[in-house]
Structure to design on (305 residues):
């Protein structure tokens, strides 16, 4: 069964409830596993319309939408948990509190839903508040959802872009710059002990907490090992502070091509042996991973707060 992925552009609480209540009830009537991941005050307003015994799993979106790749993983866990029953999910993304690069990653996440769950038979309705969200976010919903619902009947989105093409556009829109005072470390052989020590020392120097520091060391080690195995020398690493974030970038002279699947590293792998497991793991470890491949080489940038 194929995925039903709709964006719901609403204005005000009454409009929100008028559409989301019957959506959830339709899932219950169809015997589907019904999940509502919604922000307050919409969450409480919607719960008041149902009884505790209705069987809906209620989740506060502010605690669920913390990291796009982890959220993707958690939704996949929900789908697997209820299988073979299809999931009916009211899924309201959280758009507040992100910088420009993180916002782009969340927009890409909405597009990836179409690929990750394409054969799940799930039904997903994603509310977008046109009264509070920036117009750009609402406009992007038309490109990441095949079907739109607003003031009238549901309609096919003429602006929808498939996940592969959409992801390529996201990558091209990134701008990479590096400060002149970024510290450099040359990766000269397969023994990455010195690199791990270098990253750990700089993380401590910049006041990074223990867990994110350990995660950054592990992520940098994985990316450097990948560059040594698949890239072209020289391989190097830069590290610097950018406001509340510590950035670590590993680069080599090769041109990374995500063959055979350009979504490799974004789609949750089935096992550690599957291609893309390393990149997927790196994305889970850090707040944001960006990749740029061009004439001057391939560069992977890791962001950690």
């Amino acid at each position: 069964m194929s995925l039903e992925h709709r964006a719901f552009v609403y204005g005000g609480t009454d409009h929100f409830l008028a559409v989301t209540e019957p959506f959830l009830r339709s899932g219950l009537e169809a015997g589907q596993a019904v999940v509502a991941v919604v922000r307050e005050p919409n969450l409480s307003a919607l719960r008041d319309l149902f009884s505790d015994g209705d069987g809906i799993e209620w989740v506060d979106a502010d605690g669920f939408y913390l990291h796009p790749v982890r959220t993707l993983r958690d939704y996949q866990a929900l789908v697997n948990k209820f299988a073979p029953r299809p999931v009916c999910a009211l899924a309201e993304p959280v758009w507040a509190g992100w910088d420009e690069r993180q916002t782009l990653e969340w927009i890409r996440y909405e597009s990836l839903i179409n690929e990750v769950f394409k054969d799940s038979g799930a039904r997903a309705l994603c509310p977008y508040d046109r009264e509070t969200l920036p117009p750009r976010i609402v406009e992007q919903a038309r490109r990441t959802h095949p079907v739109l619902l607003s003031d009238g009947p549901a309609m096919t989105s003429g602006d929808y872009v498939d996940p592969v093409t959409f992801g390529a556009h996201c990558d091209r829109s990134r701008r990479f710059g590096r400060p002149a005072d970024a510290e450099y470390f040359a990766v000269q052989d397969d023994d990455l002990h010195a690199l791990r020590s270098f990253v750990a020392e700089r993380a401590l120097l910049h006041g990074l907490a223990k867990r994110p520091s350990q995660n950054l060391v592990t992520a940098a080690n994985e990316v450097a090992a990948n560059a040594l195995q698949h890239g072209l020398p020289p391989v190097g690493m830069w590290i610097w502070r950018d406001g509340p974030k510590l950035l670590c970038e590993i680069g080599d002279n090769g041109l990374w091509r995500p063959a055979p699947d350009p979504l490799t590293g974004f789609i949750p792998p089935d096992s550690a042996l599957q291609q893309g497991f390393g990149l997927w793991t790196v994305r889970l470890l850090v707040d944001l991973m960006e990749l740029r491949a061009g004439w001057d080489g391939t560069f992977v940038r890791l962001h950690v707060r």
About this structure: The radius of gyration is 21 Å. The longest strand covers residues 235-242. The chain has two domains: 4-173, 183-304.
